[in-house]
Specification:
Elements lengths: L6 H12 L6 H14 L4 H11 L4 H13 L3 H14 L4 H13 L3 H14 L4 H13 L3 H14 L4 H13 L3 H14 L5 H14 L3 H14 L6 H12 L9 H18 L7
Helix pairs in contact: 1-2, 2-3, 2-4, 3-4, 4-5, 5-6, 6-7, 6-8, 7-8, 8-9, 9-10, 10-11, 11-12, 12-13, 12-15, 13-14
């Protein structure tokens, strides 16, 4: 039931079993994990009891760490993840969790150290690289985040989230060609309805260096997949810059930048899990 995400029924059955087996570590863990998924505050109590009943089980400590972290009890979560990591030193997931707890505890260096330790053993580990990108970005370490995003995109070249991260970070650092290349690749691997976002990303990149001709090419291509007409004003602005203003007034640069920013924000929401930390 728990595996099938039927958390309420899983909890109900496990609680019934606990009446006759009050200290059974597996049952306590099942209730705690169900509570965690349901957002019940009792998760910590049940998982702590499970850890006391079976202190050599790393997954119990990891689940307890998750529950403590979800409840904002960061130092306790970090201690629980440390216990899990000590019992399972080669466990990738627990070290990533420990990195998240370290960052939440204000220890950026400790978080990055944990992730680098994972990557020393598994240089292409997607989970560790994603966390390294997220933590580095959140900490304002754009160059480090970009380097990690480049590694992630190389390890998982057809992953849309990785390409979007790389495109954004490249643009932040002024690497326009790299940003355009990432957006171009993203256009081919992202969902069909997301193609317009990649085109808008390429246009935005070219506008930063006033690459009007290339921006015009991308805008023309974008109109072919733009079912909602979100590129019409952008195209009109670029045409006016390339060929001169016609009889009809073109949108202002401010309006175009706002339209591209709105498109970018919408694209980001579509890939929110890649950015949330």
């Amino acid at each position: 039931m728990l595996a099938a995400r039927d958390y309420e029924r899983a909890r109900e059955v496990a609680m019934r079993a606990l009446r006759d087996h009050a200290e059974d570590a597996s049952l306590l863990r099942l209730v705690g994990e169900a509570d965690l998924e349901l957002g019940n505050p009792d998760a910590v109590d049940f998982l702590r009891r499970a850890a006391e009943a079976d202190p050599d089980e790393p997954e119990v400590w990891q689940a307890l760490g998750d529950a403590l972290l979800a409840g904002g009890k960061v130092p306790g979560a970090r201690d629980a993840f440390r216990r899990a990591a000590a019992l399972q030193p080669d466990g990738v997931g627990v070290h990533i969790d420990l990195a998240h707890a370290a960052y939440a505890d204000g220890d950026v260096e400790g978080a990055i150290s944990e992730l680098e330790g994972v990557l020393e053993r598994d240089s292409d580990n997607g989970g560790a690289l994603r966390s390294l990108v997220a933590i580095s970005r959140a900490a304002g370490r754009t160059h480090d985040a970009h380097a990690a995003a480049a590694r992630l995109a190389e390890a998982e070249p057809d992953d849309p989230d990785a390409l979007l991260q790389l495109a954004e970070l490249s643009l932040e650092l002024g690497s326009v060609d790299e940003a355009v290349d990432a957006y171009r690749h993203l256009r081919t691997v992202d969902e069909d309805q997301h193609q317009i976002y990649a085109y808008h990303g390429m246009i935005a990149a070219e506008l930063t260096r006033e690459g009007w001709r290339r921006a015009l090419d991308f805008a023309i291509e974008a109109t072919r997949v733009d079912r909602l007409g979100r590129t019409t004003d952008i195209l009109a602005y670029i045409v006016a810059r390339v060929f001169g203003a016609g009889e009809r007034s073109a949108p202002s640069r401010t309006e175009v930048d706002a339209a591209l920013a709105a498109s970018h924000a919408e694209h980001r929401r579509e890939h929110e899990e890649a950015f949330v930390f």
